[in-house]
Amino acid sequence: MPSKSPRPTTQEVHRDEQLVNCDLLRNLGRILLDTLDALLLGGPPLDVRALHSEVAQILSDSDGHLRRLNDARINRRGRAPTRTVDAQPVPEAARPFARHGSYLGAYASLQALAADTLALDAIVHPELARLDLTGVGLDLHLHGIVWTIMADGTLHAFRPPPEE
Fold it and tell me: Could you tell me the pTM of the whole model?
């Protein structure tokens, strides 16, 4: 008996949680690296209270992202579907998620989506190699500019409809 794929809502929740967790860990890692660099390179002494406050703010922001994504997902599910004109046809694997907005396309990665969204070509512009495209891609999803899902091994992106 073939395995049944998870319901779209389960996949949506998992995707949002996955990206929020990635963003949380990246932000905690950034604090760790910045703090270590300051300590090792003779920067100011470690202010433990400030460090605790910064970590608390990151945790609070992460919780806020998760709540906003959940609320947006529930609101889109409760709204009557609006017919959007997609720039390109929605592949079969992405159709269960079409309520998330206009289909933008399929991408190899979050970085490719970010580069396309920013209209960058890192190969032509090697000075952009240090641009944090993963962070840009995460921000696009976490702030509701685009909504993404992995389906059949491909990242599919949608532009959510404007909030009413």
Answer: 0.79
